Amino acid sequence: MTGTDQAMADGVRRKISLRLIPLLIVIYILAHLDRVNVSFAALTMNEDLGFSNAVYGLGAGLFFFGYFLFEVPANKLLERVGARRLIGSIMLIWGAVSAAMAAITSPTQFYVMRFVLGVAESGLYPGIILYLTYWFRSADRATAIGQFALALAVAGLLGSPLSGAIMDNMNGLAGLAGWKWLFIVEGLPTVLLGLVVLMTLPDRPAEARWLAADERRWIEGALAADRAAAPAVAHGTLRQMFHPTVLLLGLAYFMFLGAFTGVIFWAPKLAHALDAQMSATAVGWLVGAPYLLFGAALILWGRHSDRTAERHWHVSLGALVAAAGYVGMAYSSTTGQLLMAMFVALLGAGAAFSCFWGLVTATIPPAMAAVGIAVVNSAGALGAFVTVSALGRLLELTHSYRPGVLLFSGAAVLAAVAVQMVPRPRLRPAQALAG
């Protein structure tokens, strides 16, 4: 690549990142809050409504079962209708459903609403990953995805204390419990931003008026070169869904996301179990602080992966560090020990997350990206359903968090192994020149 081409590549990548990544981060922060705020609501909601740990675990997990069932159709729909219409529309739906969670009174209502919320959100994350492939070359995607994934870090770092503060400070306002206000306050902004997305989000570079004409031509050409350099794939949705690479990546994500999500959904209750006198706000800060390392790992490890053009070991090493952190969480007897273990766990999880989707988009050919990405993320959603609900059941049987958290650790180790089994992509000459 000549100096002129490199300058064009750097300038276009920077301009696209500045225009799209912040909005996508805000969208996913709201999505993350709307799916995870139930973990804080459970600190008082469970007692108010008479929910057992098993009821909470199943209800929290059913979100991911709905997500799992509808993810592939949602990603196929995105290819047909475009990101603007799909993402904007589902934001209106899931924001309204999240706010309506304040009205639940029974386990059945809890199960139904969580399932519907999962269905509504099913097209978001894989849709955004697919959307990024329309704007960033394969050589730049780990960095771009790592930047987008900062939404997880920001949502955890700020969202956890925010959720706790809403619970503590709005409890009793207008006669509503704090957990009811939590759902309302964090659900309605999603509806408002959904309207903004419907009006402003461009589907592809050709529609981006903020790119100059030569910049649009360059990025479209570079992306076309990426697609041309990819190996041919079998046609047909079913054959793409059961492609060996897709299945291996799906297995890895089933294990990895299952473990990570289990920690997210149970960490507030685990902290509260170690110190029942902690306020919801204090629990929020304890659970949120480790996301500082999560965010740092997302950026720095993703950039290192892009510079070295290596994905597999970057993901596996991160997953193994996370597994070590989960072991520490399982054996924590104080909130201080839990905090230190969570720092290790989220450092590893952030490192693995930063490179995993770069690995996915590098090893799944573009012609099957929509189906492949959705299948992989669906497998992760199924893993999350299994682990979140399983810990609730184990807690009922053993009266201890340790077996469930050790289960998370074992799953992260298996994820690291599965990633190493994913075939390494071979670059063709056109692809090497495009990079």
Quickly describe the structure:
This protein has 435 residues and is mainly α.
Structural features, described:
The chain is mainly α. 81% of the residues lie in helices and 0% in strands. It is built from 18 helices and no strands. The protein has helices spanning 3-36, 38-49, 53-81, 83-100, 107-121, 124-133, 141-169, 178-200, 213-229, 237-241, 244-274, 280-288, 291-308, 312-330, 335-363, 369-398, 402-420, 429-434. It is globular. The N and C termini lie close together (8 Å).
Q: Count the beta strands.
A: 0
Q: What value does the Rg take, in angstroms?
A: 21 Å
Uncertain ranges: 427-435
What is the general shape? globular
Oligomer: single chain
Beta-strand fraction estimate: under 5%
Described by strand count, sense and barrel closure, the largest sheet is: none
Percent helix: over 70%
Structural class: mainly alpha
Order of helices and strands: HHHHHHHHHHHHHHHHHH
The pLDDT mean sits at: 86
The end-to-end span amounts to: 8 Å
* Total count of helical runs of at least 4 residues: 18
